[in-house]
Amino acid sequence: MLYQHNCPSCGCSNTVKKGRTYYGKARAKCKKCGCQFVLIRQYPPLSSEQKQRIELLLAEQISLEGICRVLEIKAHQLYAEIPSDWAASVRQAADIELVCLKCEADELCGAARAELCSVQS
Fold first, then answer.
1. Are 35 and 10 in contact (CB under 8 A)?
2. Which of 10, 46, 49, 86 is the most exposed place for a label (fewest CB within 10 A)?
């Protein structure tokens, strides 16, 4: 179990106890930003190494379920780390890749035609 005494939102340590959740877990409230959070976290926060690996795996276009299996984390932890502009950047990268493949195919066709013409002559 991981006890969290600092606010997860702003990092402030000035917190007060705020009763219990429906499930009986102790709750706290930050005096600075007003954020309420559970003192005993069920899942530990992701390390910076795990966050870097998530970025690399997203760049490689690995499935989200696959990333969860590799890093042994829950889906909700992964979804919290995915940047909001991730989908747009993936689409843009896919468009660039398609253009590059079309250029390579055109070059190969041109080279094959030139070779065919030289064989026929």
1. yes
2. 49
